[in-house]
Amino acid sequence: MNELNPQTLAQQLKTLAKQAIPIYTQKVEAIINNKIQDHNQIELTFDYMLDFCYDDEMLLLYKKLARYYFTINPQGTANYINYYRERYEDE
Predict the structure, then answer these.
(1) 86: Cβ contacts below 8 Å, ≥ 6 apart
(2) Whole-angstrom distance, CA of residue 13 vs CA of residue 51
């Protein structure tokens, strides 16, 4: 059985995040450029992006979507900011 050591796992997570960035960049740009206001579509995008917000580039993209979504749903945006904080910020 192949066991992953912490360094290998960390590297694989970094690689996975780097692969996700172009995908979510395209999704966020499409939401913003097309002025999409569908709460479900935007929040689903947040949900998936949150898994990769340990990466600084993904976090910037998450914040970009949050700034856009704030104009549509301030409370929903606050929720997603809190979800990020609960998951990634030190207590």
Answers:
(1) none
(2) 10
